[in-house]
Fold these 3 entries.
Entry 1:
Amino acid sequence: MFVVFVAVGAAVLFVAVLLVLGRGDLLQPETPEAEARLLPDDGVEPADLEELRFSVVQRGYRMDQVDTVLDRLGRELHRRDRRIADLEARVPSAEPLPRRRPAADEH
């Protein structure tokens, strides 16, 4: 008799868990709230990072951390581009030096 009560209790508990959790679908289907704007296929500019948008899903990354990283990357790209422009301005025309052929005795 005790075994019957334990079996009935386990069955009731099992049904209750199934009702709470659903039919095995722990995650809801993804519904795009906003259209994602991803990086272009060619070069990435700081403005591309400012316009970058990801779709929000139930399981994902913390948005504040992603925003912090993207902000930093944008600043780094902007700083890099300014540095490259500064260096290019210092060297008006960079032409390669002609190659010197080694003498026969230098081999």
Note: The radius of gyration is 31 Å.
Entry 2:
Amino acid sequence: MYRRPLQSVVRKIINVSASRATYGKLFNVKETPQAATEEEVGAFTKVIEAMGFTGPLKYNKWKIKIAALRMYTCCVERVNYDEFFEKCSLPDTLNSWFLVAQLHVWMCLVRMRQQGREGKYMCRYIVHSMWEDVEQRSKIMGIDAIHRKESMRAMTETFYAAIFGYDEGILSDDGVLAAALWRNMFNRQCEDPRQLELILEYVRKQMQFIDTLDGEDLLLTGEVKWRPLLEKDAQSILKVPTPTYNDAGL
């Protein structure tokens, strides 16, 4: 109930944003970069961004917002949540759905942060789309306003704690990342170490795959594909090919 009804809602959000983006000449999208680039940020741009505003970007802001909505939709509609629930022994609840969704949102955020100011701007709207979606799903489930507010507050704390832990883990070794997954994805309740190993491997191979995607395409389209949770010989994706030599050592 908390999943299927809102797939159409996410599509509606994208369609509404797209219609706004095409309304009037102010929202015309140009594929060519605008004058201001990350390397040419002027003093005025630095001042207004220090005040919390966003200065001129390389691409049209509405184009980036729509791409952010589409990227979030990829985190929702292109992930087999039932498979995650089954393989990780997670209950089929809104909270479990959120734990899986935030993992994929985080991976998108890590990738888009590499795209400079435009990527950071896009990250803001990926997260915004997520909270809009979570709130709509809560309403569909009939959760009253008071409990919905409490739930949103708890999910917000969970999300930022997870982001901090995952960021630390992806920059460290498998032990640190596995600990972050155990705390956040499994809520400190994982009795089968093979489940933790499966998700750890999934994150590593997925991050490696996302890094190969063109950053400019991601900024303009938001299209992300996900590798399957279960793959034959998935470890080969993570291993660096071993060089082979002939008898002469060449």
Note: Confidence is low (pLDDT under 50) at residues 16-39.
Entry 3:
Amino acid sequence: MGVYLSSPKTDKASQDGENDRLRYGLSSMQGWRTTMEDAHAAYPDLDSSTSFFGVYDGHGGQAVSKFCAKYLHEQVLKHESYLSGDLGTSLQKAFLRMDEMMRGQRGWRELSRLGDNVEKVSGMIEGLIWSPRSGQVNGHFDDWPDEEGPHSGFDGPNCGSTACVAIIRNNQLVVANAGDSRCVISRKGQAYEMSKDHKPGLEVERERIRNAGGFIVVGRVNGTLNLSRAIGDTEFKQNKKLPAEQQIVTANPDIKTVELCDDDEFLVLACDGIWDCMSSQQLVDYVHEQLNTETKLSVICERVFSRCLAPNTNGGEGCDNMSMILVQFKRPVQAGPSAEQQPTSSRQSMEEASLWLLHLEKNRAKICFSICGLHLLPDHRAADAGDVTDKGNNRNMVLWKKMEYAS
């Protein structure tokens, strides 16, 4: 059986959601591929002020991409740097932690549950028999104990996955990327790439690969992998003298941070099944066009797939799995500008109004008594309203009050 089906699977798994800060839509489609190896994660309320979105494009199987979709965001939350506000460090540590968690008996068992190979059933049985904590199969991120069993020496999977993740906290956008999935934001209709595709031909990637003992043939690491960074792919991470960041293929992500502003309209996270068919600007233009008539963001993602899907498998482009997340920023309710931010004319008007009010305040006694037909005593003293005297037909009310008004 080849890598392509005789006809594409065009069923789409889609989802929409929102909170008071943003709304999102996502979709995925298997397409011409014989298996679906993409995965995604969408947590608009990772905490009260933070949203998390990620796309994971697997290769060699679906186990690693599904593992990342299940656990990576939890590892971000766990790290102490997240609580201190250092989102970039928490993302980096979470990416590297994925490789650590996929080792040993526990990692093998979880990958077998998530994977699509024939070991899936036997793996679950063996894991349950040999694991001293078998009841924790669905445990949370903070419960990842070492387990004894026939796969205790498991180094990790030879399949792998890209990971492109965006965290939005208040007006801060932090993107972490390893591989050739991509994040793009639209700012006043212009596409700005928040990630860099990690290909072996890039100078920084080529240098690391060679320093770690690897080589590049026809744009592929050791002649096989067309990515230079990925989670998983343990066969390229066997140099015991080097840290994880310096291996032939590394899970260490690039981190990019920007402050969002009113010019930022939306962001897109997508796998290379989209980017092989459309440039970043082409996709931004297409999304803008669709937003004029379509309000459901997942539908826009689905239309992108239909646009990219190849009519046949002769060319290669448009034949991959496709996954996309579209996040649209809601406009926050803006507080009034400070005095320093007011235009000059506005500040002058405010200053003039303030002076006029001060004048009224200083002379309110005169103005009030003049309007009411009252007479002030020469020393501008007035009495309480209760001390009113009637002096004949003039009915002049003289108010005696123990306070002095400035003239």
Note: The radius of gyration is 33 Å.
